[in-house]
Here is the input.
Amino acid sequence: MDLHGGNVFRLERDGKINILDYSSNINPLGVPESFKEAVINNFSILEKYPDPEYVELREAIGDYNGISSENVVVGNGATEILFLYMKAIKVKSAMIVSPTFAEYERALKVSGAQVSYFELKESENFKIDVDRLLEEIQDEELVVICNPNNPTGRFISLEDIDKISLVLDKKGKKLFVDEAFIEFIDNWTDKTSILLKRKNIFILRALTKFFALPGVRLGYGLCYDTELLKKISSIREPWSVNSFAELAGKVMLKDEGYIKATELWIEEEKKWFHDELKNIKNIKPYKTESNFILIKLLSMNSKNFRDKMIDEGIVVRDASNFKFLNESFVRLAVKDRDKNKKILEKIEKVVK
Here is the structure.
């Protein structure tokens, strides 16, 4: 099984053509037209190096998040920022709130850290128990949280993040919050952890999901610990963000029409899709606050379900390789209404 789900390239090489990819959580509105036009009109930028300090890009990101560009570091996708952060802080031990994205564990182990896990329990609908988390933290110097969490779709309130970070701060510990999916949350600008302005919090973001740009790698970190940001910048490879990725950030973060259209789509579609999934027998969809839905299969295992869905022309994310999940779980992206109606029909057919 692929670590991050459906490998459509492999499926196509195996003769599975025109597969509908429900394993990847990308905005179905596609790449913003504003960026497409900008690329056409700015091909000449390929003839020179990007700004090694990315001043204009960091200013655009700062404006988008309501903070100073001094609090921004950019990288070749969120994954580069994640690995740079772990390398920069180099903690001896860390706790990951799980099940969640596998790269946190890899980044920590590459930097030499011992890893422990806090379990989001199915019996609690994968909602975090903050008091239990704080009780379980012992020698760990860092806590890693994905918010909203992948693959469960649950979101931790700003009040709970504040409580966690305050306790950690008093003990000289750090909090890493991955907000790669936060823009799919209703009124996300009032709920992001950056509002707390606490130096022990580091926030990870990307343009991959919300702006449908996985092929142009651009991620960034937000933090009020400027010394830490300087250290990350000092160990980052020069020009790791290419000219088109730099252009994407400067253009798309100002595309208010695209942003508003996406917010209206996800607010309606995630609720409609979840309600429709609830009507299908032999599955249990969990409530989501993002653009994907975790499903428990009640009559078959995830591998069998995935294989049968591929035969129907759709690839889903087999979630059995997430820590604390098993072969009963799969994850579905939320796409446009027509595609969602199609997969509903296929799921009902397969699980009967």
Residues 206 and 219 are 4 Å apart (CA to CA). The mean pLDDT is 94.
